[in-house]
Amino acid sequence: MSSAASINPDEAAFFGRLAADWWNPKGSSAMLHRITPVRVAHIRGLALAHFGLDAKSRRPLVGLSALDVGCGAGLMAEPLARMGSAVTAIDAAPENIAVAGDHAAAGGLSIDYRCIAVEDLAATGAQYDLITCLEVIEHVAGRDGFFAAIAGLLRPGGLAVFSTPNRTPASWAVVIAGAEYVTRSIPRGAHDWKRFFTPAELTEALAHAGLTAGEPTGLTWRPGKGFHTGSDLSVNYFLTATKPG
Question: Residue 105: CB partners within 8 Å, gap ≥ 6?
Fold first, then answer.
């Protein structure tokens, strides 16, 4: 495991222990499986709009390089690959990378999985058109270095997409009390509410790294509608970032 400042070894070990169950839609990652279709649709729409791509294409991201940061076992990396992008996916837990690689190979997908920190990848000079970083930043240790590395990895004119829980009473009730302790659709102990970012805090952190944040979009759940995007930022939200070309 890397000793990079952004990596919390305890967090990496915690999620590494879940690796074998990651692709089980009724297992410890059940919540991620439920929100993945909404994530994929939203990120697809953002990429289409940002890069001016063909919305009718089954593989609209052909020609783009993508990086999925904190990829886990590949729930987002695989859809990015199916949409045509050349995908690199990184995670701090070697167990996750092993499971991700096996699952992609079984599905005939070519994804460059690496157990590497963002700082170490940025030091190679690599850059990507599209970066996704989903439910990751709340687990990061050295935050300034993490965002600086993301900025270095994003190609000028590229697009980064973050998703993360907001730090509100509603997020505590839904994510911690509800999902971790009542429904157990998220592993107990997976989150520290005090480390959640508000949209304003994330916007400021991105600006400090030289990135320009867009307007946030909420991710929420409602009876009869399920998970969906909208204006309600109280529990979870997406935020985009761009880099001057």
Answer: none
